[in-house]
Amino acid sequence: MTIAAKQGVISKAGIGYMMLVLLFLIAAVGLNYTRLPLFFSVEFIFGSAVAVLALLALGRVAAIIAGGAAAAVTLAIWGHPYALLVFTAEIIWLSWRWRPDKGFNLVPQDLLFWLVAGLPAVSLLYTYGLDVNWQTSVLIALKQMTNGVFNVLLASLLILVLQSQQPTRRYLALPFTSLRQWLFHILIALTLFAGFVPLLLDARKLQAEYMHSVEQKLQLLAVTLQKQLQALGQPVNQADVAKLLQAVLPDDSYGVQLLYSGSSVVSSAGLIKSVDISTADIAEAGFSHWQPKTISPLLQRWRQSRYVLVHLTADLPGINAIVLEQSAKEVMTKLEQDSARQLLLLVSFLLLATLIANWLSKAISGPLHRLALVSETLQANIASGAESDIPASIVAEYNTLGLNLQAMSRELTSAFNISKANQSDLVRQVDERTQQLQQANSQLEAILAAASDFSIIATNRDGQISYFSRGAEKLLGYTAEELVGKQTPAILHVAEEVAQRSQQLTEQLQQPVAGFKTFVLVAEQQGSETKQWQYVRKDGGRVPVSLTVTPIVEAAGDISGYLGVAKDISERNRHEKLKNEFISTVSHELRTPLTSLYAALRMINSGKLGELPVKVANLLQLAESNSKRLGWLINDLLDIEKLTAGKFQLVLELQPVQPLLMQAINDITGYATQYKVTVVSDFAAELLLAKLDAARFVQIVTNLLSNAIKFSPSGASVTVRAYADTTTIYIDVIDQGDGIADDFKQRIFEKFAQSDAANTRRQGGTGLGLAISKELTEKMAGQIGFTSAAGKGSTFWLRFQRYDGQTGSELPAGANHSTSLGA
After folding, report:
1. Strand-by-strand arrangement of the 321-327 sheet
2. Which position among 278, 350, 479, 558 has the lowest Cβ density within 10 Å, counted as fewest Cβ atoms?
3. Mind listing the pLDDT tens digit for each residue in 26-49?
4. Does the model's pTM come out above 0.70?
């Protein structure tokens, strides 16, 4: 493909070019027959996208040929030439404004065409040429503008993809892509997608709601009419029927017919258009949307369309069906208004996205583009001894790059001038560079010396110490002179600890590991290793450290030595010990007396020891409640500590899920009664088996039920569902509360996590229940999660592997074992 061919001059040897033009023409015509419905009265066609693609890939002549052919299709589709004129003008405008040497950013150009010429032209041509009202004309114009700009963007993105592939870029002689083009098209594509999808979903939802409302209204009218016809009795008086039909219609936009078997009309009232007895053209039973086939354009046809409900009647003698019609004009007007609003939003969003994408792409790529222009003259300026003027930028990174290039340019110019002067100047420059390197080395030494809280020790490949930092001297009591070049790190380690690690690695790797390799072998294989050791100080004292060993790799990839960075963890270990002592205290010193205290309070409050004054009884009830909460807190603390430390043992056995769920529901019934909440079960009839620790599974479900009950309003219900597919058991706990705040959702399974909401503080809790539930679920190879919407309640779900009741093995995917609720 030659550049001349791309400019429209087809050479004698341009058979390949002509074939590509023909291919683009066929694709453009075919894609204009293919429609993508978006929302009411808005359908996208993509022929112009192929025309723009032909412009960017093959040149102006190919684009005009493909665009004209695609535009001609609209004459056959819509039956008028106005779209042909506008679409042809669009591709001619883009072809005229396209500059191959300045990239292919055609989206702003297409927007300019539609704002200046396309929108006014379509509005006037449709209003006066097709006798369409001006609102409909503007709506059509906005649709065509959106379609056109979208097609230009789509073609530009496809060209970017083709340019990124070396074979297609070379064959089509495509220029290199600038950073600004990439940024502009990606930014506007992402922005449009983010704004377009919600609009599309909202539009389709509104249309479905309108249709459903009409269907319900007609269905109610048909049922009412059927009952009134039944009330007339037998034999039926035709005059009474006609009077009844006329009375039941709400207004003149409705129509009704009663049909015998064989589609003959018994009686009718109002306007009926969908039923043509002469041609047996009768809508099928149910709700449908009838449109006249002879009216164009589409919006006019939809306005004169009607909604039809054919209601079959089995218990009316002589009447087999009731046909009800309602004019769609009112609904179509609402849909047209909604569509206009959505299109206006989309066009506004498109304009805003274009401006923002254009500004951002220019702001990001502009400084780099200016640097690129300066770099073209950099070599000549250095050779001539002239100084290059590199522009500054408000973007910090670009400005730093410019300053660095400026400094580099000056240094190179100076070096070049010195090299032409004499050898002595060159020596002086070498000395200056050496001094700078020494200064940099001194700075590095100062940085390492400042890291006094860390022990930094470097060795050569054989393990001999080559660097011993001041932090290491401070931690271990040795001086660098005592160890550098004389000892290995083995002198700093406990011999028994090294031997134990050596044996562990030998068994793990199935190869002998001893000596210095004990410290570095894992780091060589994995890039680094962090492990806790005990360092031996010069005075014989031992210091627990966290040691990270990293190999020092040369540019060629060879290991030249090793670096060990150690941190004294004595304080951390002390804190860990204090924490363990606290947990032990909670377990032994608080749990036992608290249990006794709680039992005593329950005995007193039960009334078995006699009646108490009301104030005393209230205080004792409060004490019982608080001691119970404190007991829960202690149990939760102990559970979460054991889970975190890996000391929690679970006994996993094949268990039926439904009985365990009922146990949890029974356990929580009293709590639910306290909050005036009902717990409802909805289980699959088939027995569901999973490998569980029964007690801990009940604890998980109880935690979820407790939360659901606490945050449900009085009089509400909490539903527990259990069902399964071929491989997985699903358990859902559904409440009717206020939902979970968005800012709390990411933290909900963390320890001590509680929402800041006032309702959460009022309900209380330790903030450990969900954290414990998550740990227990995962230890039983399950999954836990939730869905929640503000004001619509929350659903917490559990997922476990399903097992076969006969073999005790996991059910394979595809096995016919799915269940449904209430099965």
Report:
1. 265-270, 254-259, 321-327, 306-312, 286-290
2. 278
3. 888 888 777 777 666 667 777 888
4. no
